[in-house]
Amino acid sequence: MSHVALPPNLLPADGRFGCGPSKIRPAQLKALAQSGWSVLGTSHRQAPVKNLVGSVREHLGELFTLPEGYEIIVGNGGSTAFWDAAAFGLIEHRAQNLVFGEFGGKFAAAAAAPWLTAPDVRKAEPGTRAVAEAVEGVDVYAWPHNETSTGVSAPIARVHGDEGALTVIDATSAAGGIDFSLAEADVYYFAPQKNLGSDGGLWFAAVSPAAIDRIERIAASDRYIPEFLSLKNALDNSRLNQTLNTPAVSTLFLLEEQLTWMLSNGGLAWADARTHESSDALYEWAEASSFATPFVANPADRSPVVVTIDFDESIDASNIAKSLRANGVVDTEPYRKLGRNQLRVATFVSIEPDDVRQLIRCIDYTLKNL
Ligand SMILES: *Cc1c(COP(=O)(O)O)cnc(C)c1O
After folding, report:
1. Domains of the chain: which residue ranges?
2. CATH says 41-263 is which class?
3. What is the 3-state secondary structure of 97-145?
């Protein structure tokens, strides 16, 4: 297929619209090149890297306005490792997992570990969302704040089930892009390669006192827990601003740059307004168009950070994505397993709202000329 050459005046200043790994701002990369030498290639057991971990933990706490007694913990392996760590060290007997896309489904699969009671899985069709319901004997209620595979976001509200039951939120693509109240969750975990504009490989979690109690209690029980997946180990190391084994120092550095940028601009409220400005531009364009519609039918469920747009069958969305890619406007393809005639666009906080408006002009131009 030949592509449509986009006129330079329509091109976004930065053509990265992927949902993860996602755009890292040039200023962060410049800072890494200029002063990364002070930490990259140095011992993670010495002050410079430990101070960096400490600063990241402090700034995450500031961004999320940590309630009394909450702590930020960190470990290696990204959010996928956290799912297994949770199966070993956070779920006591049984989880309830809301599944409305790939990522919620992956945690449900991890929660089906043989030492636990089979999870109570509440499934909803892609493009809609499931709702938690208090069930006796469930001690972890889990769902994604933002389901990256479909562009559905769900509110964060504590489930008042059995005493001590924990609300555990996968915030990988939401953290830093959607405002919320952390007091409504016990565990809010994420990897930093999405709104937090860094690279992959680490997981972070804001944990409540009840979650810390749970982690301590399970660790003290006779359950077998591998060292690498031990949340107790992560908790103890995090308090010393360390990780069990070597962390990706550049990921920490880039994250710290992003956090100071976000906090200096106004923190989570500012970020939330910015992602809404970008995503609203796309949703309004699709609503007004005769050939495109927002995939998520209920406006209340539409994600402000991952926008999914379905196209009329007379148009092959994959040709639009391919043509955009040939112009350096990349990663607008839909989630690979969703299999829809769709474009998916990240409107994370690092992405300029002006660039989103340029992207819309690029799509219109491509469609007219394809
Ligand atoms: C990207 C993503 C993940 C996976 O993160 P990894 O760090 O690659 O394991 C998990 N959950 C959600 C909601 C995501 O968007």
Report:
1. 8-25+267-368, 41-263
2. alpha beta
3. EEECCHHHHHHHHHCCCCCCCCCEEEECCECECCCCCCCCCCCEEEEEC
